[in-house]
Amino acid sequence: MESAIQLHEKVLTEQLPPLTANEASVEADRCLYCYDAPCTRACPTHIDIPRFIKKIATRNLRGSAETILASNLLGATCARVCPVQELCEGACVLGAEHKPIAIGRLQRHAMDYAHQKRVYPVVKAEPTGRSIAVIGAGPAGLSCAGELAKLGHSVTIYEKRAQPGGLSTYGIIALREPVEIALEEARMIKGLGVTIKTGIEFGKDIFLETLQQEFDGVVLSVGLGRTPSLGIEGEEAILDGLGFIEASKADEASLHVGQNVIVIGAGNTAVDCATIARRLGAERVTIVYRRTDREMTCYEHEYDFARREGIEFRFLTQPARVVLESGASAGLECLRVELGEPDTSGRATPMPVKGSEFLLPADQIIKAIGQNKPSLAAWLGLQTKQGFIAVDSDFQTSMTGLYAIGDCIRASGAASTVMAVQDGKLAAAAIHQQLAHHPKKVEVS
Amino acid sequence: MADLRINFAGIKSPNPFWLASAPPTNSGAQIHRAFEAGWGGAVWKTIGAPVLNVSNRYGALHFGRQRMLAINNVELISDRPIEINLREIAEVKRNWPDRAVIVSAMVEAKPEAWREIVQRIEDTGADGIELNYGCPHGMSERGMGSAIGQVPEYCEQITRWVMEAATIPVIMKLTPNITDIVLPARAGVAAGATALSLINTINSIIGVDLDTLELTPSIGGKGGHGGFAGPAVKPIALNMLAALGTDEIVSSSGLPISAMGGISTWADAAEFLLLGASSLQVCTAVMHYGYRIIEDLCDGLSNWMDEKGFMTIADVTGQSLHRVSEFKNLDLSYRAAARINVDKCIKCNLCYVACNDTAHQCIDLVSPQGEFMAPFSYDARSNGKSEAVKTRPQPVVREEDCVGCRLCYNVCPVDDCIDMVEVPSGRTSITWSELSEQQAQVTEDWEQMKAYRERVGIHIH
């Protein structure tokens, strides 16, 4: 039996150790310093990657960190959570015949230096006298707020949770990003003069009308809703995946983990849930998915990682009913599935086979099947696109002066931290432009 | 199989590789191990005047991950008692009769001092003597080493003293710290030296410590110039070797040349042979990796010789010397252009930026659809590897504008990706020398030059 400390280390310590100075130096020297590099293009925030790596090679770590932060204020989070295989590293010219440069880990090396030495951006612009309210202190909100502050605007973020950081703080397993990294990033944004008010819920404690009177612009960075309902019998015994991850970060000691755990869904969050359960002592963890490994949304490297962790996969399996014993889960009754024609998402439609019921025993069931679309849109009467808040090319919603960024607008493309950061950056530039074209109203007494 | 044996001015060795006079030949025990590893000969670390050494003797030039692209040193000649050196020389020679044992010497510029050291060396049974006129640090301040090598008259005088006393072959070693390497070489010829060797180390300061602002290496807070050697000096050594091989006086003297300066691989060795060396000396590569490198030096050289049909080292010596020329004799009508092999190109665009910023702006970036693309011409919202890779442009040489400068060829990180291809210029072959003789006004007047270019079809954009 492993001790509590060992278990703690298995779920709360970053999986990848930091590069040593020598490792970073060797890796940085391997970079060819491509011109108009494909890694930079593949990065949604277009960090000048060869430049920051060259600066590591020349031992100019301060300059390296500044290069990263100039394009991406959440460089420390992105260095850890970005699916680099799909982005910068996936585009590295050395990938075909050699190993791509470990861009993510080099970025982390530079950002660790930045955090140790407080190499943080400073506001150089004169105050504009304009103010913007940002709803939600997740990656998109923090990025947008920070970029606006750099341009001289006064920014206030309203966050309903107790801590800023959004999914970085609450939804990314600590194996990938310790909470402290996300909180330190929020402190850096505060250091730019941004006010972050936590524990304040939009629509409950503050309202759009008030904000519109007080501020020159309002930005919605509210993310997505809770995990949708499966609509099956006994669902009340199923845990929510995001809640499970949150508990693993906040208070893993009190987190109950079953012996035989089923995770429903095969996205990256499902893999995270399964990993945590396995590492916290579950004997058997099974991911149940109604399609096959070809359709699942987790990244290939996540799938490989999960299998190495000893997580089992049951494909073409549709949950039908939770079997309860004295109110607790005893198993998941499932149906065998056959795949039909592609649906609107382009993936084959799963068709449960009647009469194919079978039981998978489980004393804990977790669902990680995506998140509900933002409910805010309907409530505020905003136009939507496939259920997400619709925005124009300047991230403005159908309501003038109201902007939206991050996962809540991600009708297409990957909902990822780095995309949210880029939204925040682009939206800040757009808002700045628009404010410049609309001079502040001078009150006539 | 190629015969690697050499007979260098009467000094025989089973292969052309000798350890140069330096720390690797500091003692009998070391040389014994080197001979066990297969070295053909060794030039004993210079003996002569009494010395004392300092700590932090070696600096080094690193580049990227390559350690010791060059080494620099302020170590003096042997600081071991001369009697011990002489005794060990005798022992080594007795134990290794088939290997070349040469003793490097350096004493004060007095005839009796040189006569005495020659006598003592000959008494050991050594095969030859190398005159150290090259050591650029310490000894030169005392009127020895490069203080002699930099003055051809001194070289000649001292070599004459030595030749009067010596009965075994004498190799005069040249310093590269001189304007024209040919002059001391001619002095050696005039003095009747049996052979020449080059190059000794080059004056250098490795660098400055950016924390302490002291020189590196720091010797108690101070430093100074030291002798520079290793792979980085090879092109300088090759040039000096070729200068001797193409000098009328030196080459017609028939003096064999033992060459050194950055030899690390068999391929380096072959290049030195082709430019006129008959024996080869190695130091820095051994200081980096140990005596064991002799195995591939011999093996690789032998395999290459077999492939090329060379039977002996003597067959190789000087085979490329007739290719050494001067600019004025180069064919002005010869035209080469760069060609990028699209199958090998990894699209790093290093050729593009080098050409565009610093050469002749003749590489275009061409999109997969065949359109010219400006660098960085993508939308701020584009993202992901597939977009980045699929839309990545291909660098393509605009051959009509390519001047054949060969910069792209040099920066390309992929072997055999860029070829320099001969492109018929359609012009009649002519050298600058011929042009000066036949149409002097063209070489003296820009207007005439312009008219000439138009006449023969040379376009400069």
Treating each run of at least 4 consecutive H or I residues as one helix, how many helices of chain A? 17
- Calculate the terminal CA-CA distance of chain A, rounded to whole Å: 75 Å
CATH architecture of the largest domain in chain A: 3-Layer(bba) Sandwich
Oligomer: heterodimer
What is the CATH H-level superfamily of the largest domain in chain B? Answer: Aldolase class I
User: For the largest beta sheet of chain A, what order do the strands appear in spatially?
Assistant: 3-2-1-4-16
Report the mean per-residue pLDDT of chain B as an integer. 96
Beta-strand content bin of chain A: 15-25%
Largest sheet: spatial strand order of chain B: 3-4-7-8-9-10-15-16
Structural class of chain B: alpha/beta
Count structural domains of chain A.
Answer: 3
Helix content of chain A: 25-40%
Instruction: Detail the poorly predicted runs of chain A.
Output: none
CATH architecture of the largest domain in chain B: Alpha-Beta Barrel
What is the percent of helical residues of chain B?
25-40%
| Interface with most residues | A-B, 33 and 24 residues
Percent of sequence in beta strands of chain B: 15-25%
Helix/strand-derived class of chain A? Answer: alpha/beta
The first-level CATH class of the largest domain in chain B is given as: Alpha Beta
